Amino acid sequence: MENKTENSEIIEKYKLKDILASSNINFLFGSGINGKAFPQLNGFTETNILLDAKYNGNSQNFEEKLNSLQETDRHLVVDKFLEEFNNFITRIDYSHQDISDIQNLFKNIYELIDKKEDRQIESFKCNIFTLNYDDVVENILENNSYFNKVITVDKFVRTNIFDMVGFNYKYKKYIPTFIVAKLHGSVSNGALTKDSVIYPRK
User: Fold this and answer.
1) Within 13 A of 93's CA, how many CA atoms are on the CB side?
2) What is the per-residue pLDDT across 139-163, written as a single tens digit (0 to 9) for each?
3) Given its phi and psi angles, is residue 179 left (phi above 0), alpha (psi -120 to 50 degrees) or beta?
4) What angle do CA 87, 187, 86 make, to 5 degrees?
5) Domain coordinates in residue numbering, the chain
6) What are the pLDDT digits (tens) for 93-142?
7) CB neighbourhood size of 49 (10 A)
8) Would you call 93 helix, strand, or coil by DSSP?
9) What share of the chain is helix, strand, coil (3-state, %, to 5)?
């Protein structure tokens, strides 16, 4: 209760609702967004064991170690990563508290955008840039019937999606629109494949 009161005071003091309600909202989500509902990279035990066995050096960075491997060994590690990833994704618990927190975030953002005074079309959008391969964010948006568009390496189209905003013809008003850009690639048809992955490099 004390934290809730403190948060309310901060929101009021800095007029955060006013700022958010009059602006185009942008997020950058990394692996931490899923909390403990989906393992982060250090939770991919078999992948990390195989990578360390193939790697000869002193870097602690996953991408650096992976990119330094010979092509054959790199493919072995990537295959193990995909195997573990696709196993984990079939076991995501959408009732997990950390997933509920993301859902509540979107609910609050939707309400802020929907109730705002500003009529600028651009401010009806919420851009979400995510480094995650999983489809947790997209599923939450779909399951809550939020107007959204997902941009992935295999779904890119010529239309500039960032210029699109939903419109309700019945009530003659724009509606909150979520644009999700998958910067590192994405699950497609329930699985992550080599063709759907963009590996970070220098």
Assistant:
1) 8
2) 999 999 999 998 887 666 555 666 7
3) beta
4) 10
5) 41-92
6) 999 999 999 999 999 999 988 887 767 788 899 999 999 999 999 999 99
7) 11
8) coil
9) 50, 15, 35
